[in-house]
Amino acid sequence: MAKTKELSKDVRDKIVDLHKAGMGYKTITKQLGEKVTTVGVIIRKWKKHKRTVNLPRPVATCKISPRGVAMIMRTVRNQPRTTRDDLVNDLKAAGTIITKKTIGNTLRHEGLKSCSARKVPLLKKAHIHARLKFANEHLNDSEDNWGKVLWSDETKMELFGINSTRCVWRRRNAAYTPRTPSPPSNMEVETLCFGGVFLLRGQDNFTASMDGAMYHQILGENLLPSARALKMGRGRVFQHDNDPKHTAKATKEWLKKKHIKVLEWPSQSPDLNPIENLCRELKVRVAKRQPRNLNDLEKICKEEWDKIPPEMCANLVANYKKRLTSVIANKGFATKY
């Protein structure tokens, strides 16, 4: 049944005035076109309370004392991953018995909501300074310059799907503030290490379980052929992070010997590397196909990597300036990228 529209104060007052003039319920109903039951409710309310406006509704009493709310907020602030069950048990130990629903309502009333935890690197002051320096130095670089960068990364591909994410309590738009990062997961699973490179016109790939010696082999077999296959031409720049095998003396000498320019890279900056987005896309695609063993995983990785459209690479390069702007706006801390 649809909810009826509430009568205005003027109509209610008119009903009372007609009643005072000696008219009955049915006469008032016929004259004003309202229901008999509605007229009766308004007249009885006037007789009892001497008013026609709605009475103030009783405010629900808070089941948690201000001290209990303070304890909840302190716990969530120090440990954002605290669950509602944990908070119920904490309050029960303090002598207050409430439900999980009450906990959720209290936290939302305080401006918090349950969100997926963001996995961001733990940044030291040196990392923050290096990230800001990189962003400011390259902020005005053209899209063509970024299109000449041969990006690289290594990532783990899980045999049994993507790591599940836990939820944390945080305020709106506070996902990437310095106080709410989620530390990287250390869960051990059967994986295959997959490395890749991509650029404005497409992507190339290689697979390996990498150490220092293997990294040299990968560079020798894939770096220059990939650059030629992607028709990069002169002025190409190679990007890799500051992993020890990347910064080793032997690696630097090999790159120098091959006349390969390396992009100076700030540590702990996965959000500045657009290939991270491709790796995420690859993981989602591979997880959907549910590989059964490591050989199947490697085969599917290669197939799905080749299916990633070049337009996705082009968009990542075209919007690279937004990453730098976000780093500067967030004062060097992690960003949504």
Automatic annotation (TrEMBL):
One Pfam family linked to the record: HTH_Tnp_Tc3_2
Gene Ontology molecular-function annotations: DNA binding
Segments forming domain Tc1-like transposase DDE: 235-297
Domain Sleeping Beauty transposase HTH: 1-52
Domain Transposase Tc1-like residue range list: 71-140
GO BP annotations listed: DNA integration; DNA transposition
Superkingdom classification of source: Eukaryota
Record PANTHER family: SI:DKEY-77F5.3, TRANSPOSABLE ELEMENT-RELATED
Protein name: Transposase Tc1-like domain-containing protein
